[in-house]
Automatic annotation (TrEMBL):
Pfam families: PQQ_2. This is Outer membrane protein assembly factor BamB, contains PQQ-like beta-propeller repeat. Coiled coil: none annotated. InterPro entries: PQQ_b-propeller_rpt, PQQ_rpt_dom, Quinoprotein_ADH-like_sf, WD40/YVTN_repeat-like_dom_sf. It comes from Natrinema salifodinae. Residues 1-32 are annotated as: Disordered.
């Protein structure tokens, strides 16, 4: 792992060209040293130049990209939104449904975390509500008024059927605990454009990720925690019927299973929490290859590991992102796993292509074509504000750049060359300074070349 000085020098030298403008998002409690749960969302549409931000207080605000990307990256005046609405719950996920051409046929779908776990579709042009669905009707009401017990829509995916019909897929979950007994209830949904439910897939496990095959015929569902009768980490569903087609599991002990899943043609890449490896699976779950990402490693008498939290696959290449260091015996450790907070890419045979530090916790990985964007938050074991940034990479070469922020970057979206991110303020527990603000960041990225890898040290 490169030291801080050399990493900073290399990032400056290889920084891609981008100019970012900000739009304030009001107030939010500053994050602390340890990374917090998902509190914000952002989505850039590919067709009608719209950027939508979701906030922890439920506010959803839509901006025209042309308004945000004015001639001056940092204007004295705040940009005017296209529309603003109040979502019933914390607005923690956003997707586009429909063409969104600006003529009334597109919707912005917002996923909620709150008393009702609400999914709502808003008109992309006006912000008017088109339909609403409360997932608490299926997963149950919260038994405690704390964030971890609230019904939570963890993922949204959209596609278009062969006949041109738009489809929405969603995964919702709810947690409860009674003494030593812990339980998850979850539902995966397929919705018609008008909000009617086509089918449900219900389990007693905790989903964490969805991904659709390019043909729209298969939906992969990754489960992070399996405590009950449902004891597999990956299921693949037929999108027409919701019927199970095949399953896969790393076969590890304990309830931790996977962190993310990603289709690439007939294959599925899986980031495994069970054994801290990355997998590429063929049809039916046949293992093509696996790689060690942040497996248990002994350092200074401790066995350390980090979870592979994110994966993106495309064009025969796969990139994985790892998270925080933990010790087998305790979550407190003075040492760090050598592969924590790292992005690593592999070819179709599982051979390494490139790897690079992301330096802080990545809440989610955004992708469009050959480009990846990682919003990097704090590194709670080495509290260094230089980790706060939006970083982007070319999937084939690793070439890319960085936009540093004073606060922490906690959400990102990518549509073509338009990258959007949410900055949240942070105040470390051993430092009274509040860094950054609650704001939307929008920029346009320059072209990167897959043929010219960045220099590694």
């Amino acid at each position: 792992m490169a030291d801080t000085e050399s990493q900073t020098d290399r990032e400056t030298a290889t920084d891609g060209s981008a100019e970012f403008r900000r739009a304030p998002l009001g107030e939010i409690e500053p994050a602390r040293s340890r990374h917090m749960w998902t509190r914000s969302a952002v989505h850039a549409t590919a067709t009608d130049g719209l950027v939508v931000a979701g906030q922890w207080d439920g506010t959803v605000t839509a901006y025209d990209v042309d308004v945000l990307n004015g001639d001056a990256p940092e204007s004295d005046s705040d940009p005017d939104p296209r529309w603003t609405v109040d979502h019933p719950d914390h607005a923690v996920g956003i997707a586009s449904l429909g063409a969104g051409t600006g003529e009334g046929d597109g919707s912005i779908v917002v996923a909620g975390r709150g008393d009702r776990g609400t999914i709502t579709a808003y008109d992309a042009v006006t912000g008017d509500r088109r339909w609403r669905y409360d997932t608490a009707d299926d997963v149950g009401d919260p038994v405690k008024d704390t964030v971890f017990y609230l019904p939570y829509v963890v993922a949204l995916e959209t596609s278009v059927d062969a006949d041109g019909t738009d489809r929405l897929y969603a995964a919702a979950r709810r947690y409860e605990r009674d003494g030593e007994t812990r339980r998850w209830d979850s539902t995966v949904y397929s919705f018609d454009p008008d909000g009617e439910v086509r089918w449900r897939y219900e389990t007693d496990a905790s989903p964490i990720a969805l991904d659709l095959a390019a043909d729209g015929e298969r939906l992969a569902v990754g489960y992070n925690r399996c405590l009950g009768d449902h004891d597999v980490s990956l299921v693949v569903l037929d999108t027409d019927t919701g019927e199970l087609t095949w399953t896969w599991d790393p076969g590890t002990e304990g309830d931790r299973r996977v962190g993310d899943v990603s289709f690439d043609g007939e294959t599925i890449a899986v980031a495994s929490h069970g054994d801290k490896r990355g997998y590429l699976l063929g049809s039916g779950g046949a293992e093509r290859w696996r790689v060690d990402l942040a497996v248990e490693t002994e350092i200074d008498g401790e066995r350390l590991y980090a979870y592979p939290n994110h994966v993106h696959a495309g064009d025969g290449r796969v990139a994985f992102v790892t998270g925080n260091t933990y010790a087998v015996e305790s979550r407190e450790t003075e040492s760090r796993h050598p592969n924590e907070h790292r992005i690593a890419a592999f070819d179709a045979d599982g051979e390494p292509l490139w790897d690079d530090p992301v330096r802080g916790f990545v809440h989610g990985l955004a992708a469009d074509g050959e480009r990846l964007v990682a919003p990097c938050a704090q590194n709670f074991r080495v509290r260094d504000p230089e980790t706060h940034a939006v970083r982007w990479f070319d999937l084939g070469s690793g070439a890319g750049g960085v936009e540093r922020v004073d606060g922490i970057a906690t959400a990102a979206s990518l549509a073509g060359d338009v990258v959007t991110a949410v900055e949240e303020p942070v105040r470390y527990h051993d430092d009274d300074e509040t860094r950054g603000e609650y704001a939307l960041r929008v920029g346009t990225l320059a072209e990167t070349s897959s043929a010219a890898p960045i220099e590694r040290r």
